[in-house]
Fold this sequence. Notes:
Radius of gyration: 20 Å
Strand content: 15-25%
CATH class of the domain at 20-122: Mainly Beta
Number of helices: 12
Strand order of the largest sheet: 3-2-5-6
Order of helices and strands: HEEEEEEEEEHHHHHHHHHHH
Amino acid sequence: MRAQFFVAVIGVFVSSVMPGQDVDRAADRFHGFKVRGEIVTSRPLIGGYSVELAGDTGLAESVPISGDGSFEIRAAQSGMQELRVVSPRGEIIHREPIVINGPYQQLAIRLPETASVPRAGSNTVSVPQLEHKVPPEAKKAFDRGLRAAAEANYTEAISAFRQAVSVDPEYADGLNELGVAEAATGNMESAAEDFQKAINVAPEHPAALPNLSIALAKLRRFHDAGEVARRALKVVPESGRIRYILAASILMDNGDPHEALTNLERASDEIPKAHLVAADVLVALGRPEDAIKHLEQFLKAAPPDDKDRPAAEARLSVLRH
């Protein structure tokens, strides 16, 4: 299958994927609805753990995690977000990119088995396969960077994160956050370098791996993006967003359209736009009836004012006739 057929994929794909603060800034979003979720882990999070949700305007909400692992976001907004699980001491023990589609969505956040829960009184930050003691000076700079990023002050955030990783070059979370802040300013090359440095320190970092695949896709390094996305899915296998990145990277790299279609279908519950790309693939494969189903599913899931709705309706009309 020729990549030229999927030129439209670039517009759908690149405009809708970027980690942390660099998200879709379209104004047509839902506001203030409830989203429920559950933390799935082999070891219960007892006593004072919370979930933070951060979007393009910084930290949106912080809510407690109940004893059974459930939580409820009370004022969610639609779009790309970063979800963080925070210990009683304020240490981030897990983070992952998610997409909020609208009210009544149920989130399932699975903590990696290799992630350890910080002990009370410790000064450790846990990342996969690594328990790393962070010097107080580095942690202080890191926290300052998080506050600056939450206020969209990316210049200050980058400076603070750079200070943190200069004090502690193996601070994987610091390297990841530095990459996120750089990406938010459009410096994708530097962002990709810092995500890679984080992965060099912590090969299964649950945020840096997805972030690197996204950054590489933004740089149109689709072969590399696909390879990193496959690695990321071993750490965050339920991430529809990363499956979407993998599918688009396969298509733009002249890969197997059937593999791409499988990933698009698995991504579509989380990323409704995956239905649009899947429809294009199915038309190219000579399956217009299945393409119609995907367009119908997109129109059912998308809000009434979704900017892609008119084009989807037009394509659906053509295929039906």
